[in-house]
From TrEMBL:
<dbReference type="InterPro" id="IPR013655">
    <property type="entry name" value="PAS_fold_3"/>
</dbReference>
<dbReference type="InterPro" id="IPR001610">
    <property type="entry name" value="PAC"/>
</dbReference>
<dbReference type="InterPro" id="IPR029016">
    <property type="entry name" value="GAF-like_dom_sf"/>
</dbReference>
<feature type="domain" description="GGDEF">
    <location>
        <begin position="317"/>
        <end position="456"/>
    </location>
</feature>
<dbReference type="GO" id="GO:0071111">
    <property type="term" value="F:cyclic-guanylate-specific phosphodiesterase activity"/>
</dbReference>
<dbReference type="InterPro" id="IPR035919">
    <property type="entry name" value="EAL_sf"/>
</dbReference>
<keyword id="KW-0378">Hydrolase</keyword>
<feature type="domain" description="PAS">
    <location>
        <begin position="153"/>
        <end position="228"/>
    </location>
</feature>
<dbReference type="InterPro" id="IPR035965">
    <property type="entry name" value="PAS-like_dom_sf"/>
</dbReference>
<dbReference type="InterPro" id="IPR052155">
    <property type="entry name" value="Biofilm_reg_signaling"/>
</dbReference>
<dbReference type="InterPro" id="IPR029787">
    <property type="entry name" value="Nucleotide_cyclase"/>
</dbReference>
<dbReference type="InterPro" id="IPR000014">
    <property type="entry name" value="PAS"/>
</dbReference>
<dbReference type="InterPro" id="IPR000700">
    <property type="entry name" value="PAS-assoc_C"/>
</dbReference>
<dbReference type="Pfam" id="PF00990">
    <property type="entry name" value="GGDEF"/>
</dbReference>
<dbReference type="Pfam" id="PF01590">
    <property type="entry name" value="GAF"/>
</dbReference>
<dbReference type="Pfam" id="PF00563">
    <property type="entry name" value="EAL"/>
</dbReference>
<dbReference type="InterPro" id="IPR003018">
    <property type="entry name" value="GAF"/>
</dbReference>
Amino acid sequence: MREHSELKFIENLTKIVSELLVADHVMISEVFESDPSRAKALAFYSSGSLQPTLSYDLSGSPCETILELDSCVYNRGVCQLFPHDEMLQKLGAESYVGVPMMSVDGQKLGILAVLNNDATEYGAAELEMLQVAAAQAAAELTQIRITNHLKESKRRLRTLMNSLPGMAYRCKNDAAWTMEIVSRGARELTGYTPQQLENNTTIAYQDLIHPEDRMGIDREVTGATHSDSDYSLNYRIERADGETRWVWEQGKGIQNAAGVITHFEGFVLDVTEHYLQQELMAEIAYTDELTGLPNRAALLNELQCRYQQKLVTGDLTPCLLLLIDLNRFRSINQRFGLHVGDRLLRFVTHQLKRAANEQHEQAYLARLTGDEFVIVSAGSGATEDTVTRFLKAADAISELFAEPVSVGEHHLQLQFRVAGAYSTSADSAAELLQQASIALYEAKQNGLRYCIYDDQLAQKVRDESKLSERFRVALANQELTVHLQPQIDLQTGNCVGAEVLCRWFDEELGSVPPDVFIAIATKQGVLTELGYQVLEKTCALIRKWRERYAFVPVVSVNIGAQQFASLEVVDEFVKISEHLPAQAITFEITESDLMLDPQQALAVTERLRNYGFQLAIDDFGTGYSSLAYLQQFNVDILKIDMSFVQAMTLDEQSKNLVATIIAMARTLNLSTIAEGIETAEQAKLLKDLGCQQGQGYYFARPLSAAEFEQQWLHD
């Protein structure tokens, strides 16, 4: 339906509605606020073709009521009900359905009407389709009106520009740009009459140009003439009365028959007020309203200017940028209110100005975001290195806020993180700011007060970026593999289960630890995709093994918090594991993941249970889940965290804790699996305490699928 023309779209829409509803007549009409008693048909599709558009009175027609109602439906007898509607009588319509066309702000723009020569009843679906069509028509009609308004605005602007006082000219392409023709607006613009300017009688126009601007004008005009293009200039002139004014000039070189530019023709307009207004707007655009400091845009502009100046002057002194982040500012806003947060930011601004002034006279202070500030120092040329300068500045900032700050009745202890970057390690202003942001992120991630972007951090960022990129490729190419660690019945010593563990071996990086690439997957939001791949590979193994062996242990697969975001994950699990009994798979969920959103977790686990899958809580005892939730989750297995298992032979308290977990599981009729068993002593103690199963290096390390099959599966 999409067309280059909005009106063509509306015409096509009437045709499509007619075809979809098998309607005899479809009309889309526009109603104006200036004359709400009449409507103008934008498109009228009747008896299989578009008809000439027309205007008609709304009074006495069914369309009149639509402007007061959401819709209007007459299944039969519409001509009898509206005998004075001439168009209705001419068409001989028997039924009528009308839907108003609404703008986004609720204004009624027009009407979509469907008429049939026979009695017709439309159901809810047809009426809904008409409302959708009316909304589309309203959107296109709105665009038509916007386009018309823009055209009218442009016309008015041209008229206004043509009436502005200004000076049209024709001058020679000589050293003085001697004026040959000057319009009457010259007097108001320059204070000189056209006669005084023509042929340089009293003064040459070039001599009115401010001395500081002449070189730039020469350069711009010369460049434009060489490229045969228009020139557009802003510069200052000195009027006859001595007043300095800003003007805007546009012109073009005029060639003779030989292709030589002999003259220039153009127009000069006084734009002083406009220029000053632009300066004011630029000041507003570059200033933070709350603190009065330069904002992010101003900071980038300042940094770029400093970069350009260093290139011109050859200054090698590093430009040091300090990014200052106020810790827990959001919680201050939430606890005490935005007015307290605003007063606090003004106080911080005052103190940072002190720090900036004490640091160096060339220091530049800006507010980057809500709780982030920046100090830029060009350096003093001292012999101390940039890192030392950074540490001294960071310490000075901390000292400013060593004492609690009183804001009204509140006394707040402020803490900051300070990150830094310096210009010799960045090629542009944006890169310098990005490097400082990276350093700040590093400080937050590692709980550091200070962090500077240096070669070591740069290498770390490059390594992480490379690792992330190779992981994305490995995931896309299905290069990750599954290993299995057996789960042993502590009474019989038989393998009764296995936990699936994902492994990634990269040809360049070697074996990448799971916690590293799982963190990457979590950060990139692809943990769910990774989980699906692991489950797909696992189910393929189980299917193959079930064809070969009479007994295949139950296989446990971990699912993460990101996979709990939607109930649709359960449908995907069922689809991946089709043709396998649900009892062949146990899903392991860490206790901490369950407690991130207990209600959502309950919904997902309930659906998994309904499909027959077994559920295990992994790392039990570390997530602080309540017994009430434990009962609601309706799990089958508790996996005792390895930290408890490895400590229970060392102290009585850990042993009692493990015993309590096993007793609680027995009371709730749950199975228990102990993780991280590394010694015979641990295995025996767990067996004596009543734990059913265990896994760990004492029994076997994680094995490849082939190794697991060879060692633990038998005919």
